[in-house]
């Protein structure tokens, strides 16, 4: 065999040997068990809920409890059950204010600006303050010694959908009202009463900002004049018989009454009446005019 042939055979042998070694070694690498590195779960940042205590003081008198009135997100109903310490604090306030007729308790309800205002008040904070006011009135505190306000509160965080104590209290010396202020408020309400328009069968009433302020004015007046009542008038267009329209107007007035009761007005302070189609404010010859006549008017009666 020539040297050239031996040289070629050597190259061929090298190629074959390299191929066999490659298959052998890579096969082993492929069959090796690869260690699975567990991926650590992403930690979620939990924002702790805020909590505001039931605190109020004046001179030697004070109430200081960690427990307070609680409210669900976008709601103005006090969450039950109410802690017994809160009730005890309210009774302490009742005793204090009873002996201090020249003092008033200011209730400020907080709300987050991202909450939905499902109340008839200008803001959810005022609606929450009104709910607290009604609770305190039920425990014997005169409504004339209670003042309600609403305020947006930044940084409030709920705990499982509940705001803990979104309210603040302060005791102040009663400011004498300006002469004629109550009469001026009454005139403001009666000259331009709250009007609602909705069809029979609707499940909700939606108020705009102007209507919400009118409602707040009515509540404020009723708080200041214990002899006044809220009068709700039901009106219709002239479609149908007078008897049918009278019944329909009453139905609308009663629906509005239920709505106001849900907003915190006492049932005994609300009266309803129907005028049917007797008092139109627009022509009944057009659909637009008839729509204006189908209305509910909410006013005060002194």
Automatic annotation (TrEMBL):
Q: Which GO terms describe its cellular component?
A: cell outer membrane
Compartments it resides in: Cell outer membrane
The UniProt transmembrane annotation reads 7-25
Main localisation: membrane
Q: Which UniProt keywords apply?
A: Cell outer membrane, Membrane, Transmembrane, Transmembrane helix
Q: Which domain of life is it from?
A: Bacteria
Q: What is this protein called?
A: OmpA-like domain-containing protein
List the top taxonomic levels of the source: Bacteria, Pseudomonadati, Bacteroidota, Flavobacteriia, Flavobacteriales
